[in-house]
Amino acid sequence: MVDRSSEYHFPRRLGHEEEREAKEEAYRKDLDICVDDEADPTYQYASDDDDEGYEYSSNDDDIQNGDADIVMEDADEEPEDAEGLYEDWRRGLNSLTESCSNAMSTFLPLSASLICKKEQNFEHIAGPGCQYTAGYNPFDISVEEMRGCKTLQCLVRKGPELRSEKDDEEFELSSDCFLTGISDHMSARDCDSPTVFPARHGVKIASADVFFYDVEAGQAMPFHPTCFEIFKHLSRRVFNNVDVNGLMKWWEIENTYADAYNFTRHEDVKKASCQWWEHYRGAEYLVANPVFVPGLDNLLGSAISTDPSFSVKLGAFSGNLDQARSGSHSNDPFLQLPQELRFYVISYLSSPDIAHLRQCSRAFYQLPISLWHHLLIQERPWLWEAHASSPPSFWTLVSARLLKARQEAKDVYEDQLQIYRDAIQSEMPELLDDWKRAEPSYEEVAEPLEVPKLPTLLPKDKTNWYLVYRNLTIHGEELKGLRNRQRIWTDVAEIVRRIQKYRDEGKIVD
């Protein structure tokens, strides 16, 4: 809870009792709190019954109708069990409604029993050890790491009259589907469909859900733009194109509740997937942005060499590549092989096997830096910074809120220009055409969009791939977005496998 007492400043240092009374008086004036007081001339004692537990009793009907005055107990002295009563009071806050007519039936210490007659919105402020599962602890994950975790976009089948738009991506032009705008919130299925912005191809509201009982025309497949970015990378790797037709058809084939529920998921996702998402400590990485990963640029950038003499053909360790051929290990059969054949042998091995081989044979003591580029592609294909050449999609950079704010600013600018045009048309019509030609567009005068820095794409010939591999092995688990990328890559790889399976079975036809 937020302690509002810090908002009130007193002109001198007060004693404990004076300070308590001053704070209570400030609360009363600001919050319009009714407190009964025996010193009040209008005070009337309710009963002479010594057994009466409360000074005021109201019937339930008055309280429900909001007509009852909210009162509080006199407490010139703190009760003996003040700490326990305070805990009762704090738990009781959960039962308060937005109406001012609610009252507590628990005897409270005066300093803790002020009940506001106005609407109250209580905010839970997590501490470092908070175990509350209704949200992730900000001590465990930052807002920057969670960027875009609620942003969604949809894939929709094209209608017969649909025409291309100027911002269509290449796969949209060549496929039967198109992308909608984006939304910053996915409504519950029993509430409403998400509103997307901008209204691409005329779609303002997307009929989206993870499954449908009956698939009909116009229904939309929802996903995070960052997750779709991972699909694009994996689809290019497997199909050599962004196979949105196959993706949409897979969703239509496996679009029942049972399909969605039984799809292979990470154990952390299964644990959190209840009626409401359970935010368990240690699983914060599930909401980390998998494309824009804070800290990843520094980790990768440190491996880029500016030395003109650098080459990926150089050895990754101290010594040169031919140094292993000399020495007393003449009985090692691998030493009799030329360097090219030795490198050909290790190209079929995993990194643990290579490590074991280096312990067994001096012929593999020194290895070229380029080997670790091969290992990264084979063992960590989700690190597309090591092999991709295209930047992330525009939709991964922005939010619906940002795009709406920019459109509103553009509308204001256009309205102002129209006022100028009307004035010139009225007073100097001969200058109107020249004025229109000289008008700057909104994009020319507007501030650039506030978007994250694009990830570093590693140059193949100027990157120490051994350093990249080593740094990821040591520090990769610390980067929550990279952990989430690996998890999502595994899920998407299963989807791609099923697309290929249905295509082989003839259920998906190009």
How would you portray this structure in words?
With 510 residues, this protein is mostly helical. It has helices spanning 16-31, 60-64, 82-92, 170-173, 225-239, 244-253, 257-262, 267-272, 296-301, 339-346, 351-360, 370-379, 400-427, 432-438, 442-445, 465-475, 480-504; strands spanning 152-157, 177-183, 207-208, 219-223. A four-stranded mixed beta sheet has the order 2-1-4-3. The model is unreliable at 1-14, 31-39, 51-76 and 93-119 (pLDDT under 50).
Short summary:
Helix content is 36%, strand content 4%. With 510 residues, it is mainly alpha-helical. A 4-stranded mixed sheet has the order 2-1-4-3.
| Most strands sheet | 4 strands, mixed
- Report the portion of residues in β strands: under 5%
Q: Which class of secondary structure composition applies to the elements? A: mainly alpha
Count of runs of 4 or more consecutive helical residues: 17
> How many β strands by DSSP?
4
What's the average pLDDT? 80
Spatially, the strands of the biggest sheet line up as 2-1-4-3
Instruction: Categorize the overall geometry.
Output: globular
Low-confidence stretches: 1-14, 31-39, 51-76, 93-119
Distance between the termini: 57 Å
The helix fraction, in percent, is 25-40%
